# Entry
Amino acid sequence: MLTVGWADTGVPAQIARGEGDGVKGERDESGRTAVDPAQPSYRIEDLAHRSGATVRTIRAYQDRGLLPRPQRHGRANLYSDVHLVRLRQIADLLDRGYTLASIKELLEAWDAGRGLGGVLGLVAEVDGPWTDEEAVRISRAELDERFGGAPDAAAVADAVELGVLDPVPGDEDAFVVPSPQELAVAVELHAAGVPLSAIAGHLRELRGQVEHIAARFLEFTTEHVFARYLDGPHRPTDAEAAEAASLIRRLRPLAQQTMDAELARAMRLLAVRHLRQHLGADETPKSSHPTRTVPLPEETMQAVESLVGPERAAEFISLAAEREVQARALDRLTASHRSSTDLDETP
# Structure
């Protein structure tokens, strides 16, 4: 399928101009593409070959009202470049996740002259790259070398499944790396002794958790920012769609900035706690005696906490009780000694 360029308005540039493989039609006052009789004409098989769609798909689009009916010349149905452009519009929108029902609404609005630029601009903004990273190409030999030199077909299969590597069509010894940073992390972890299978398993788990966070962030921004553009009874106007696209450009970095800050905070907190646990610095002596819970008056606890703080209150009460018990034991000993001394005295 031909990849069309995007104009500044967000409309595919070739579609906006009515061009593409010899399109000679131009927009009339209503925004429709007027068919030029001098355009090339195609039989359905030729149209399928040029568009990449199947004959069955073209007929299905016609039945659903997505594609104009062909012109009838004798016994032959002839299609023009108008049909070719429309098929590419449909394919492009399908690639962007639109359903056929939604595509029909969009194309009907376009044909009626109500404009599609703003909505497609919004689609382009959402569908555009959400990172500054640029994909790179790597050979199988380079990949093996970065991971120690030993080929690992299972690890490569895992990476392809996860999208860390994309095979290059027609070249089984080459891959595209969508995120060089992600691959670099895997290289460092493997060099530190982490098995590749464990790295793949960790990425699967992490991806599920991150997608949950992304979904929550999307729900949050939709509720508080984008609901006014999406929840109305009518499709957003070009101006509203352009405003929403501008907001996406402004808000897009916030998700990553929030994740970076919160991940740094959590990593520091948990790493310090983890290290203390392993070094024994966070351990408190465990008593060999069973404990009991004793209710104390609120004012007593407040007085103790004001003296030693809430975290040391239990220790203070325990020591105070022990001191009282020891004092009474001493009193008994001295009292017993005095009694025996009195009995030994003679008048």
